[in-house]
C-alpha cells in the first residue's frame, strides 16, 4: 500500500477539494463522464495523452471518493461503464465555472504558461 510522505492536511474546504481532485486528469474525467463518455476506451480516446494505467488509477480514486460509480456488466469480454454519482454531479457547475474562467483568460494563461516553460529550458 502507498505510504504518504506528506501528512494529510484537511483543515479547510480547499484542502479537501485538493485531496479529492488532485490528479492531472480527474477534472477532465468527471467532465467527459458527465457528457456521456462512459466506457474506459471512450475516455482514453478523449484523453489520448494519458496512459490507460493512470486513467484507471484516477477513475478508481474518483470511485473511492464517491464521485463516480463503476458498473461491470457480466458479459465476455467484460464491459465496464462509469457514471457520476449525485455527489459527483454537484461538481459539474464548479468545473464549468473553472472552464469558463480558463476560456475568458485563455490568451493570458497561455502567455504566462509558455513564458514559464521558456524559463526552464
Automatic annotation (TrEMBL):
Domain HTH hxlR-type: 12-110
Gene3D superfamilies assigned to the protein according to its UniProt record, in alphabetical order: Winged helix-like DNA-binding domain superfamily/Winged helix DNA-binding domain (1.10.10.10)
PROSITE patterns: HTH_HXLR
Keywords (A to Z) from UniProt: DNA-binding, Transcription, Transcription regulation
Entry annotated with the keyword Transcription: yes
Domain of life: Bacteria
Pfam families named in the record: HxlR (PF01638)
PANTHER family: TRANSCRIPTIONAL REGULATOR, TRANSCRIPTIONAL REGULATOR, MARR FAMILY
Name of the protein described by the UniProt record: Helix-turn-helix transcriptional regulator
The organism of origin for this protein: Chryseobacterium endalhagicum
Organism phylogeny: Bacteria, Pseudomonadati, Bacteroidota, Flavobacteriia, Flavobacteriales
Amino acid at each position: 500500500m502507498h505510504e504518504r510522505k506528506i501528512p494529510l492536511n484537511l483543515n479547510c474546504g480547499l484542502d479537501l477539494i485538493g485531496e479529492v481532485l488532485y490528479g492531472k486528469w480527474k477534472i477532465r474525467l468527471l467532465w467527459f463522464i458527465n457528457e456521456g463518455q462512459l466506457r474506459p476506451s471512450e475516455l482514453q480516446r478523449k484523453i489520448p495523452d494519458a496512459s490507460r494505467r493512470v486513467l484507471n488509477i484516477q477513475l478508481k480514486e474518483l470511485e473511492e471518493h464517491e464521485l463516480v460509480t463503476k458498473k461491470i456488466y457480466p458479459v465476455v469480454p467484460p464491459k465496464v461503464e462509469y457514471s457520476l454519482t449525485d455527489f459527483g454531479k454537484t461538481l459539474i457547475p464548479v468545473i464549468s465555472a473553472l472552464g469558463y474562467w480558463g476560456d475568458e483568460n485563455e490568451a493570458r494563461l497561455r502567455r504566462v504558461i509558455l513564458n514559464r516553460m521558456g524559463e526552464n529550458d
